[in-house]
Write a structure and sequence with these properties.
This protein is an all-alpha fold. The chain has one domain: ABC transporter involved in vitamin B12 uptake, BtuC, CATH 1.10.3470. The protein is 77% helix and 1% strand. It is built from 13 helices and two strands. It has a two-stranded antiparallel sheet with strand order 1-2.
């Protein structure tokens, strides 16, 4: 009898082990799958120059997605990041055009981005306004301020000491280097600090976290401050890369950031996910756009296929994650 049970249980055990393996590495397999698809569709896909292009294109969304990951981990949402990026880019460009020292201009812009994030978090926690509404209001206001600064006109003639941030160090784009460094720092914060562990606790069960003595409002607000700061960094780097302050920059970027975070395995319900998955999620989205561009596909078709691919990837990811 025992022998028969062992024979029956052995295939089941192997099945569970295979499901666990797929659950742990499913995002990596999706990433490799798109690498293979891209290399088959275009000979230029895996060239050094194209890989550097993908890193450059990924950097701005990737930096914003770091902050978005922190927000979504506590079951929040931040719709203002694209507008905050635009306003930050305009602010740093305006300060530089007035002759301010680049380091001081960048510091003021970072503080402004953090303050906008603080306002969103403060309104959401203190006045019990849903994060969706609070950050939507901030999105509208920040975009309005970005357009108001110069009546919707771009700011040109930025100093070379600043635009160097948008160039390359060796062959690697500086924004990509900063994105990778910030990603590593964020991984360390989430995995190896008390702050990170408490964020997971707040996202997993806010009431339990409050009863255990965690100052929930403080931690929730801090994630929005971080998100605003990341958006400001991305705005500064984008202005340096474009060599112009553009008030319409970052339009729709909040949706790309949210999609990348969710594709990366972070749950919109909070308490589950991480920065590593977000990093790969951003690369997957950038690879899809890059493949479409190499194939010369119209932007209209790109939008349709991008939506379908994102939904398919999310369904596959959710299916594998929930597989018992």
């Amino acid at each position: 009898m025992n022998t028969k049970m062992e024979v029956i249980e052995e295939p089941q055990q192997k099945q569970f082990q295979a499901a666990g393996f797929m659950k742990k590495y499913n995002l990596f397999f999706i990433f490799v799958g798109f690498l293979i698809i891209g290399s088959l569709l275009s000979d230029h896909f895996l060239t050094t120059q194209n890989i550097l292009n993908i890193l450059q294109q990924s950097a701005f969304v990737g930096i914003v997605a770091i902050g978005m990951t922190f927000v979504i981990l506590i079951a929040g949402i931040d719709l203002s990041v694209g507008a905050v990026l635009a306003l930050s880019g305009m602010l740093v460009s305006l300060l530089l055009s007035q002759g301010m020292n680049p380091i001081l201009a960048i510091a003021i812009t970072l503080l402004a981005g953090a303050f906008m994030g603080f306002l969103s978090g403060f309104i959401s926690t203190k006045f019990k306004v849903p994060a969706f509404i609070a950050t939507l209001a901030m999105m509208v206001s920040a975009r309005g301020f970005a357009l108001l600064t110069t009546d919707g006109e771009p700011i040109y003639d930025l100093p070379p000491a600043f635009t160097a941030l948008g160039e390359s160090l060796g062959n690697i784009p500086v924004p990509a280097i900063i994105w990778i460094v910030l990603t590593i720092l964020a991984v360390v914060v989430l995995k190896y600090t008390t702050f990170g562990r408490k964020l997971y606790a707040v996202g997993g069960n806010e009431e339990s976290a409050r009863l255990s003595g965690i100052p929930v409002e403080k931690y929730v607000t801090s994630t929005y401050v971080l998100s605003g700061t990341m958006a400001a960094i991305a705005g500064i780097l984008m202005s340096a890369w474009l060599t112009v302050g553009q008030p319409t920059a970052g339009t729709g970027l909040e949706l790309d950031a949210i999609a990348a975070v969710v594709i990366g395995g972070t749950s919109l319900a909070g308490g589950k996910g991480g920065i590593g998955g977000t990093f790969i999620g951003v690369l997957i989205m950038s690879m899809i756009v890059n493949i479409f561009n190499l194939l010369g596909l119209s932007s209209y078709y790109q939008s349709i296929f991008m939506g379908a691919i994102i939904v398919t990837a999310l369904i596959m990811n959710q299916f594998i994650t929930n597989k018992k």
